[in-house]
Amino acid sequence: MSSVLLAIVVLLAVLIIVSVLMQPSKADGGLGGLASGMTSDVLGASSNDFLAKATWWMFGIFVVSCLFFGKMKANENAEKLQEKNTKSALELQVPAKAEETVPVKTEETAPVKAEEAAPAKTEEAAPAKTEEAAPAKAE
């Protein structure tokens, strides 16, 4: 839809330029003097009024279509921005699963046997026997 409207805007711009250049100027300058005979032959004796009215109508349609095109593009951009913000907000809310995380590869080590991997058993220190203090003999 926007490409069709853009084509209409460009076509109207070209038609406005052509109609303005075909109109005779009041100072007898410009391209209006060159084409005044041709326009009166093609469009009739009242071609100046017709070109002036057609130019104003084309200008009005041009302005309205430009405003409509701008509003349509603004809505498209707002929808894209809203979709992007919604997508990023959803990504922030969903926590990453542990399985989805990529493990960081560290230096390669040779596989270790189970016996080697088990901690060495240490003998538990028995509690030290304390001798009860014998009563001191009086000499």
Concise synopsis of the structure shown:
The protein has 139 residues and is an all-alpha fold. The chain is built from four helices and no strands. 60% of the residues lie in helices and 0% in strands.
Secondary-structure topology with pairs:
Elements: H1 2-22, H2 32-43, H3 47-93, H4 114-117
Helix pairs in contact: 1-3
Strand content: under 5%
How far apart the termini lie comes to 122 Å
Note the run of SSEs as H and E: HHHH
Mean pLDDT: 74
Alpha plus pi helix count: 4
Shape: rod-shaped
Largest sheet: none
| Rg result | 46 Å
Name the poorly predicted regions: none
* Helical content band: 55-70%
* Class by alpha and beta content: mainly alpha
What is the strand tally? 0
Note down, in words, how this protein is organized.
This protein is mainly alpha-helical. The protein has four helices and no strands. The protein is rod-shaped, with a radius of gyration of 46 Å.
Please give a handful of descriptors for the protein shown.
139 residues; mainly alpha; 0% strand
